[in-house]
Specification:
The structure holds 2 protein chains of 2 kinds. By secondary structure, chain A is an alpha/beta fold. Helices cover 30% and strands 20% of the residues of chain A. Chain A has 12 helices and 19 strands. In chain A, the strands form 5 sheets. Chain A has a 5-stranded antiparallel beta sheet. In chain A, strands 9-10-13-14-15 form a 5-stranded parallel beta sheet. A 4-stranded mixed beta sheet of chain A has the order 3-2-1-4, with no helix packed on it. In chain A, strand 6, helix 1 and strand 7 form a beta-alpha-beta unit. The longest helix of chain A is centred in the middle third of the chain and has 18 residues. The N and C termini of chain A lie close together (11 Å). Chain B folds into 2 domains: 139 residues, 3-Layer(aba) Sandwich (Rossmann fold), CATH 3.40.50; 158 residues, 3-Layer(aba) Sandwich (Rossmann fold). In chain B, the strands form 2 sheets. A 5-stranded parallel beta sheet of chain B has the order 7-6-5-8-9, sandwiched between helices. A 4-stranded parallel beta sheet of chain B has the order 2-1-3-4, with helices on both faces. In chain B, strand 1, helix 2 and strand 2 form a beta-alpha-beta unit. In chain B, helix 5 crosses helix 6. The chains are: A alpha/beta, B alpha/beta. At the A-B interface, helix 5 of A face helix 4 of B.
Chain lengths: 451, 323
């Protein structure tokens, strides 16, 4: 038995064209005006009048916390959050326990994702054993495993040893992979709590200076140029970093960069509350940094938006600032933040959003068989987003295990109404579908491709 | 004013109210029976996550002279050192019926987190948080300056035109921050003097209401200050490359005998204590008649009595903004 056929009527494509979409056997079998004539009468109709159809979003920077930190998130709960946000693929970071530094762990994480069925899970492998920054992990084994790892990162920690970083860039090149660097000079940021500036001085919170990020990015782009490898820079947060990357690209260095939704909307002023929901690494920066990141996305210096979705249990945030964990959840709110910060402000079109949240992250991650076009015959991974709403972001929008969102209580534009993964719905009419329903759809899809 | 968390948001009227009530409390402290019944039946908790015998006993004396019951909760050897959270500690105190909480914490902002939480309802007094603020220290310093300058005519007066030079580890000093905001509100002019490594990052660019200088001799010569306040230097700063060693620090930024002799006849020498004699301050400077060190300690009790009285008895001006 295969999954049902769906007829999406009157969606607006990223290009602005209006089209019907016919979803059959995990593919878009017809795209265009009046697809109803092509469909059988038992197709399930979805009225998409006023909804923007976007290719399934791809998050190159997610923390799913499993194995090891299941009180914060699991592959199942994290991919539910992903689906709620319109994502159909996520790349979970390697800082699990055990660390994702062997083929066994990455394959396990991928399989948990496949079974849950909410999104394609493509694990990121650790660059160094145990994220310790000393010896390379078994990068080849992970690349050749069933998980086909192409992105390697010690995220949470910086590969700060220059020689090790050089070797990592060279070795990963062997497997057409990329090193995703968490750029943070560890000595310049010991015990750092927030952006270093007059405000950190006033609040008495230890500063995380912009130069600690910018100096590492500058070194890394030069290393990437020297050895001819590609480099990806995680969560760029400062105007100076945007400048360094712009310069590197102008030299022809193969570097890509991401910005997080929170760095595109929020500033350090929120730390005045000492509310640890706003504690994140790298920290929230100044207004001029936010503007530079937005401009970087608009002119292509910053290639993608990635969430750095970092779930934490309540007790990790209900404390004095210094004792609280770094990080914010972001999958469920990413598209609304992107609309608020970039589309509503006229900096990006929906076509640009499709590029920075789907097409380019899929390319950087070497995500096979990911469709970013709405061409007939392409895989049916897409989201239907209602851009007309402007509502307070509330707890009911969160679908993961943790609620450490900095956007709660904030007015954000738009919301995801439907998400389709492999041609079956994971979110319908704004509701994340039940786990057993989605797992059953995923099993039918898998049976369909193996039969 | 429901809590005292910072001097930054304290209005001139609120600050003067505290200082004037402290004058009344000082009068009580000069009587034979140094006790008021104002807080009888109230329980004040001294919640100290960081060792500070001086500040704790000052608050304890203040609460006892107002007839309050005092509970000292020290983090060392308590459930806190076993990993109990600030939240659980606060809820425990609330359940025991604390009417006021005096908190000293190593994390900046912990008193504000407590005040804004729904864990405990009692007024919160910040007794020093991380490198953020120490508002009662600034209030007792202002009280001490005012009394030295104006004596029995102090009431109702601010510090307009008074020149204060604060010397030392400004970067890590909650005393310097609280003093800066309060002195500005009261009309005084503040100069920070320190090596560039110990000046808070961005303070100059952000136009903090302080002149900033690296040169102690030049500053003393040019400003002819009414007050020189020396801050304690902690030896671990040397290991973290803030300055090379104690000798060099004392030579450049210490209040030694030569600098003491060059001060104007009425210039006060202040120090929040505890002092490192021979490092930031010479023995002659500490013990000279200019030194207000012991007055500061005595005035600390009066000022803390005023703060506890205003917050815990509910006598602070109603309808004023939270400070």
């Amino acid at each position: 038995m295969s999954n049902p056929t769906y007829l999406i009527v009157g969606a607006t494509l990223p290009t602005g064209e209006r089209a019907d979409l016919l979803v059959q056997d995990a593919r878009l079998t017809h795209v265009g005006r009046d697809a109803s004539g092509e469909s059988s009468s038992d197709a399930i109709r979805i009225d998409a009048d006023g909804l923007v159809a976007l290719p399934g979003l791809v998050d190159l920077h997610t923390h799913l916390r499993e194995p090891g930190f299941e009180q914060s998130e699991t592959v199942l709960s994290g991919t539910r959050a992903a689906a709620a946000g319109g994502f159909t693929s996520v790349f979970p970071m390697a800082n699990t326990l055990p660390v994702s530094d062997t083929a066994g762990v990455v394959e396990q994480v991928m399989t948990l994702g496949d079974d849950a069925g909410y999104a394609t899970v493509r694990p990121i492998g650790a660059v160094t054993v145990g994220l310790a920054g000393e010896r390379l992990s078994e990068i080849g084994a992970m690349a050749h495993s069933k998980a086909r790892v192409r992105v390697f990162s010690d995220d949470g920690k910086c590969v700060h040893d220059s020689l090790l970083m050089r070797r990592a860039l060279e070795y990963v090149k062997t497997f057409d992979g990329v090193v995703a660097q968490h750029a943070q000079d560890p000595r310049l940021t010991e015990n750092a709590q927030m952006n270093e500036g007059a405000l950190s001085s006033e609040l008495g919170l230890k500063g995380w200076p912009a130069v600690a990020e910018e100096s590492v990015i500058a070194r890394d782009v030069l290393l990437a140029e020297h050895v001819g490898a590609r480099l990806h820079v995680c969560h760029v947060s400062t105007a100076g970093s945007v400048e360094v990357i712009r310069w590197a690209k102008s030299r022809g260095i193969v570097v890509t960069a991401e910005a997080t939704p929170h760095h595109l909307l929020l500033t350090e002023d929120l730390a005045r509350s000492y509310d640890a929901r706003y504690k994140v690494n790298p920290p929230l920066r100044r207004d001029e940094d936010v503007r530079a990141l937005r401009e970087g996305l608009a002119d292509g210096t910053i290639d993608i938006i990635a969430t750095d979705h970092a779930p934490h249990p309540r007790e990790s945030k209900e404390s004095e600032w210094d004792a609280a964990s770094f990080g914010m959840v972001g999958l469920e709110s990413a598209l609304s933040v992107a609309q608020t910060a970039l589309v509503d402000t006229g900096l990006l079109t929906w076509n640009d959003i499709a590029r920075v949240l789907s097409r380019t992250p899929a390319e950087i991650g070497r995500l096979a068989d990911h469709s970013h076009s709405f061409e007939p015959g392409s895989p049916a991974n897409f989201a239907l987003h209602d851009p007309s709403t402007s509502t307070t972001f509330e707890l009911d929008r969160l679908a993961g295990k943790s609620d450490n969102s900095p956007f709660l209580g904030r007015t954000l534009s738009g919301r995801v109404e439907h998400t389709f993964h492999h041609g079956y719905p994971t979110v319908s009419a704004g509701r994340v579908l039940a786990s057993d329903t989605v797992a059953a759809s995923a099993a039918r899809w898998k049976a369909g491709i193996t039969s | 004013m429901r809590h005292l968390l910072s001097t930054k948001n304290l209005s001139r009227d609120e600050a003067l109210q505290i200082l004037d009530v402290a004058e009344d409390m000082a009068a009580v402290n000069e009587r034979e029976v140094r006790k008021l019944p104002a807080l009888r039946g109230k329980t004040i908790v001294n919640l100290f996550f960081e060792d500070s015998t001086r500040t704790r006993i000052s608050f304890e004396a203040a609460a006892k002279r107002l007839s309050a019951d005092v509970i000292n909760f020290s983090a060392k050897g308590s459930s806190v050192s076993k990993g109990e959270s600030l939240k659980d500690t606060a809820q425990t105190l609330a359940a025991m019926g604390a009417d006021g909480v005096v908190i000293r914490h190593h994390a900046s902002g912990a008193p504000q987190v407590l005040a804004e939480s729904d864990w405990i309802d009692a007024p919160i007094v910040n007794a020093g948080d991380g490198t953020h603020e120490h508002p009662t220290q600034a209030l007792l310093d202002a009280f001490t300056i005012r009394r030295r300058l104006f004596g029995s005519t102090s009431r109702g007066r601010d510090l307009a035109g008074v020149s204060v030079v604060i010397v030392g580890d400004i970067l890590h000093s909650r005393v310097a921050r609280s003093n800066l905001w309060l002195l500005e509100t009261l009309g005084a002019a503040v100069t920070f003097v320190a090596p560039a490594t110990l000046i808070p990052f961005g303070a100059e660019a952000a136009n903090w209401p302080a002149a900033i200088s690296y040169d102690l001799d030049g500053t003393l010569r040019e400003t002819r200050p009414d007050v020189v306040m020396m801050l304690r230097i902690q030896s671990e700063r040397m290991n973290a490359a803030f300055f090379p060693n104690a000798r060099e620090y004392a030579r450049e930024w210490g209040l030694d005998d030569a600098r003491l002799a060059a001060l104007g006849p009425d210039t006060m020498v202040m120090h929040p204590g505890p002092m490192n004699r021979g490092l930031e301050i010479s023995a002659a400077a500490a013990d000279s008649p200019r030194s207000t060190v012991l007055e500061q300690v005595a005035n600390g009790v009066s000022v803390r009595m005023a703060v506890l009285y205003l917050l815990v008895s509910g006598q602070a001006g109603e309808g004023k903004a939270n400070a």
